[in-house]
Amino acid sequence: xxxxxxxxxxxxxxxxxxxxxxxxxxxxxxxxxxxxxxxxxxxxxxxxxxxxxxxxxxxxxxxxxxxxxxxxxxxxxxxxxxxxxxxxxxxxxxxxxxxxxxxxxxxxxxxxxxxxxxxxxxxxxxxxxxxxxxxxxxxxxxxxxxxxxxxxxxxxxxxxxxxxxxxxxxxxxxxxxxxxxxxxxxxxxxxxxxxxxxxxxxxxxxxxxxxxxxxxxxxxxxxxxxxxxxxxxxxxxxxxxxxxxxxxxxxxxxxxxxxxxxxxxxxxxxxxxxxxxxxxxxxxxxxxxxxxxxxxxxxxxxxxxxxxxxxxxxxxxxxxxxxxxxxxxxxxxxxxxxxxxxxxxxxxxxxxxxxxxxxxxxxxxxxxxxxxxxxxxxxxxxxxxxxxxxxxxxxxxxxxx
Length: 401
Prior knowledge:
Layout: H1 2-5, E1 10-11, H2 13-17, H3 22-32, E2 36-42, H4 47-66, E3 70-76, E4 79-81, E5 106-108, H5 114-127, E6 134-138, E7 148-149, E8 152-153, H6 161-171, E9 179-180, H7 184-210, E10 214-220, H8 226-229, H9 234-240, E11 244-248, H10 262-267, E12 272-276, H11 289-302, E13 305-306, E14 313-315, E15 318-320, H12 350-370, H13 372-387
Parallel strand pairs: 1-15, 2-3, 3-6, 6-10, 10-11, 11-12, 12-13
Antiparallel strand pairs: 4-5, 7-8, 8-9, 14-15
């Protein structure tokens, strides 16, 4: 997957392949107290391509079991490698009927498409045949992300024939082709999209639990409206999952933190794991001891389970894993508890801007993902947006030790 997404970069394959070896796992548990591991199973390639991944995981599971580390089999969610599934019609469509890309070589799949729902259900079913403790579905969202320019919002979700038919059956109306957050039609679509994805989540959870496995999916920072952005409902996910795993860019070393999630963590009926990145994948250098100490300190203060990123780091252009043998057990340190703030975007001519995004957004994404020059430029922009220090609501103060 690294080769596909990032144009065959330099990879320390020996380092990656020893990720699940007993000495590495033993050291990770000794240093970080690891209780759970999210392990490679399916990255959205064809069954034929993934055969070696299945065998690799099956051969390594005993190492986790010996150390009493729970394993969650990683299943790619609502996107697949297009060339390896191009004979199938699993795909989301934009307003012009085009495929919607999701990183290089991949396209988004529609949760309302019966063939794709069956594919994903079978993938979870097959993962349950392994001696894993659970199944984890990653990148679990519904179609294109919106660009909100209040009160307008760009095209989001999916406009395929299955969505059009199902929305008409539920509401008696056509799918919207322009989106104004003040209008009932837009809110009805937000609800339709969320209900469709949560229904699929419930079905996948039921399969896992029928096999005595835990079930989870990735959630994104709840500082955003998750129903609008991703098609997910946090309360519904907590009701059907055995844990919540939040991904965000709120690592304290990046001048941010997770304190805005404090109430959500305290009120969650299931354990909350948080994995916070400092930079985008492909630009992220390995965590230092201080980075680990910051994660540990924040998790102790807020009461969540820290989920440590352990792979896909880059140093001098080479991809590698986190080296646990260079780390010590984490200790408590001070960090800023300044609350992050989300700023709504409102621009003159927002309606016309959203029209342009609706018309040309997919074409831009295709070029960004498939052409190295575009990708580097856009990656630089995203890196600056996601890693800049948060706006502050009040003065920094030391965290509880």
